[in-house]
Design goal:
Elements lengths: L24 H8 L1 H4 L8 H8 L19 H18 L10 H14 L4 H12 L5 H17 L7 H12 L7 H17 L8 H8 L4 E7 L5 E7 L4 H11 L5 H4 L2 E9 L4 E7 L15 E7 L11 H16 L11 H15 L10 H6 L11 H14 L5 H13 L7 E5 L1 E2 L8 E5 L3 E6 L5 E6 L3 E7 L9 E7 L4 E7 L3 H16 L1
Parallel strand pairs: 1-5
Antiparallel strand pairs: 1-2, 3-4, 3-5, 6-8, 7-13, 8-9, 9-10, 11-12, 12-13
Helix pairs in contact: 4-5, 4-6, 5-10, 6-7, 7-9, 8-9, 13-17, 14-16, 14-17
Length: about 525
């Protein structure tokens, strides 16, 4: 246990620090540093402050005890050991045999992850070693470490205003070499305070890149319709920052609409035969989903359809057309099985044909019509009947330019009864009255259970009635994972479980929709 008092400072201290000379690290050292507290004979005057100032300045001599007072001898020992690791990393001491800079950083970050009570100590050690350090390269390394610390671990509420003031002062001098990185540390600390820090410690390759001055990682976002968006993300870029960047590129700058888009992390295993899909919440760090290799890709999808669409931007139009087209052809948009279904499929096939620039004035072949038909309907719709419907449409309608055909396709799909639902194919359900397999659909308002053949809705669960849910492990080897839904009122609680391969994807998608609809 540390003797530092309980965490009592106001949360707003991270963004609002009094002007003047209050909350300097010297003030913190005078109140909380072990050595300063032992200076009993010195009065609180400028001479004492000058003596204490040396305690928060760079030294080439390893500390013999922790800077802060700990009654636990193990913490004191870990603190002094960490200071030596810090000195080796910053070039003040020679490294151990076969030890490199990456291992030094990893060791320090791992200590912070395992010992929360040492966060303040490590912060103070790094701040001390970058203050008045005559070695420019060593100082830069210290700031690089501080950059990681601020994004991963928060100081206590006691140290927070002092650390924030230190960063403010360091970033206010444009002539200094660490001006920009101090600003980055401020941003990291603010995000950490608001959203929590990154969950996973950095891979060695990320640390190596930071040490070589490459603070940003190249990332390709796979857009609907086969488009790609190239960007660079920093160590602590969160999803909502990248979403805003992409949406503004598409001409969707209103915050309300930006919140309807979601980034998905897709991990491919077993030569792309198995895929794990997970929506990334707006306040999560992208690096928490990325691996050292390229097995994780990031895609963009619109998940909520609350704000009206607009088509003045080509990329925006192409992205929406690409997403709806993929969902439609892969059976993710359910079609009602009725007399009008063949005509609906024919109209959408014709619009797909016109959306291709090179096919604008031609008649689609039988093979092309098959490509334009959802996979789930290719055996239930007569190819000849579909061809006849399309022939009639081509004779009675004037052909459209590709962009107009895409817009009409989008507008037509949006009128379909199950548009706006993210659908999942479910193989088992606890409710015996529901025939399986079936579809579960989720939108911004409700969860529906739909017959896989007739598209009749068996059950509707309003999201506002969803009390709790959890994922379930497979019951047996080779079995499917599941989700348990607890819903209804306190007077009439209900429970339903379902099994499907995409259980985790569905669970996290519901969480993201709930987050967005609560905003």
């Amino acid at each position: 246990q540390s003797s530092v008092p309980s965490l009592t400072s106001e949360p707003d201290s991270i963004v609002s620090i009094p002007a003047g000379n209050h909350y300097t690290m010297i003030d913190f050292a005078m109140a909380y540093f072990r050595e300063a507290q032992s200076m009993q004979r010195l009065r609180r005057n400028s001479a004492e402050k000058k003596s204490v100032a040396a305690l928060v300045q760079h030294t080439k001599v390893p500390i013999q005890e922790s800077l802060l007072q700990y009654s636990d001898s193990e913490l004191n020992e870990l603190a002094t050991k960490n200071f030596k690791t810090l000195m080796r990393f910053m070039g003040d001491h020679s490294k151990l045999k076969n030890q490199n800079e990456v291992e030094c950083i990893s060791e320090i970050l791992q200590l912070c992850k395992e010992k929360e009570s040492l966060h303040d100590e490590v912060y103070c050690q790094v701040i001390k070693q970058v203050t008045q350090n005559p070695n420019q390269e060593g100082t830069l390394r210290g700031w690089l470490l501080l950059n990681l610390l601020t994004g991963y671990f928060l100081p206590s509420n006691i140290l927070m205003p002092y650390a924030t003031k230190f960063l403010q002062l360091a970033s206010s001098d444009p002539s200094s070499t660490h001006h920009d990185i101090a600003k980055t540390c401020q941003s990291n600390l603010r995000k950490n305070f608001m959203y929590g820090g990154r969950r996973h410690l950095p891979f060695p390759v990320e640390i190596e890149a930071l040490l070589k001055g490459r603070g940003a990682r190249r990332l390709v976002i796979l857009m609907p319709g086969g488009m790609e968006y190239f960007t660079r993300i920093k160590a602590f870029t969160i999803s909502k920052e990248l979403l805003q960047e992409i949406c503004e590129h598409m001409g969707a700058g209103e915050q309300e609409e930006i919140e309807e888009f979601v980034l998905f992390a897709i991990r491919s295993d077993n030569n792309n035969l198995d895929k794990t899909v997970r929506p990334i919440r707006s306040e999560e760090y992208l690096h928490d989903y990325l691996l050292e290799d390229t097995s994780v890709s990031v895609t963009l999808r619109r998940l909520i359809w609350r704000t009206p669409l607009h088509f003045e931007n080509k990329i925006y139009t192409d992205a929406h057309y690409g997403q709806m087209l993929w969902d439609y052809l892969n059976g993710r948009i359910l079609l009602s099985h009725n007399k009008e279904m063949e005509m609906q499929v024919a109209i959408l096939a014709m619009l797909q044909h016109w959306a291709k620039t090179e096919q604008q004035n031609s008649v689609p072949s039988r093979e092309e019509l098959k490509e334009y038909t959802p996979q789930t309907l290719q055996f239930s719709i007569s190819p000849q009947a579909l061809q006849n419907h399309v022939d009639v449409l081509l004779r009675t309608r004037r052909s459209l330019q590709p962009v107009d055909a895409k817009i009409q396709f989008i507008e037509h799909v949006m009128k379909l009864p199950f548009f706006g639902y993210t659908t999942y194919f479910v193989e088992r359900v606890s409710d015996n009255t529901i025939p399986v397999p079936c579809f579960f659909g989720v939108n911004k308002e409700e969860i529906i259970v739909v017959d896989s053949t007739t598209q009749v809705v068996f059950c509707t669960i309003p999201l506002k009635e969803l009390q709790k849910m959890r994922t379930l492990w497979p019951i047996s080897d080779g079995g499917l994972p599941g989700i348990e839904l607890n819903y209804g009122s306190a007077a009439s609680p209900k429970t339903m479980w379902l099994e499907l391969p995409q259980a985790k994807e569905m669970y996290h998608t519901i969480v993201v929709i709930l987050d967005a609809t609560e905003l």
